[in-house]
Amino acid sequence: MVRGPDLLWGGDIRRFHPPPGRFDGVIGGPPCQKFSTAARLRPGLKRQNLIPEFERCVLEARPAWFLMENVRGAPIPVVASYVVNDVLVNNRAFGEEQNRVRRFSFGTEDGHKLIIDGGLTIFDNPVYEYCVTASDHTGGNWENSRRGKGRNWREMARLQGLPAAFDIPPFKRVALGKAIGNGVPLPMGRAIARAVVGAVAAAGDDRC
After folding, report:
1. Which of its termini does the chain have fewer beta carbons within 10 Å around, N or C?
2. What is the C-alpha to C-alpha distance for residues 207 and 199, in angstroms, rounded to an integer?
3. Which residues sit opposite 107 in a β-bridge?
């Protein structure tokens, strides 16, 4: 596994060029702020669309498959010669408290789809929590602040499905909020990983 550039680690995707034919799969989650509900309510905010950079990296790497995660309103990636199937998944479908809907776009040359176990029917969890965001720890998130709510990073981590002993990098406060709040919840991530393994196996590609 190779980690690409990330702003939290001082990287810049715009200067990254993966070698062709070296990676079986490419996974990415371009910044979602431009396409989020908060962005629509605050049209004056300047947010970059880095999905074209993700598309470029896939085109350069030429993997057997790619997976992009983003919010519901984000565009579906378009890469020449790949067929992309997308699916919306709610974190509550895995019995979790947090209501967090994310779109996963899966691209292969043959158009294989992700089959997600338990990810399309919402379980009846009696506890409901609003979506965790990067700014929750400051109390400045529009959705939580209007409800008089604020979360510390430990509560954010719990709602994201991270165990208490999870190894979180020693980021400073703002970066820590971004690392946790922008991530995919662990139960959702595990289900998507199983779905990718299944899709790759169904395609007869043993490079997974």
Report:
1. N
2. 12
3. 66, 84
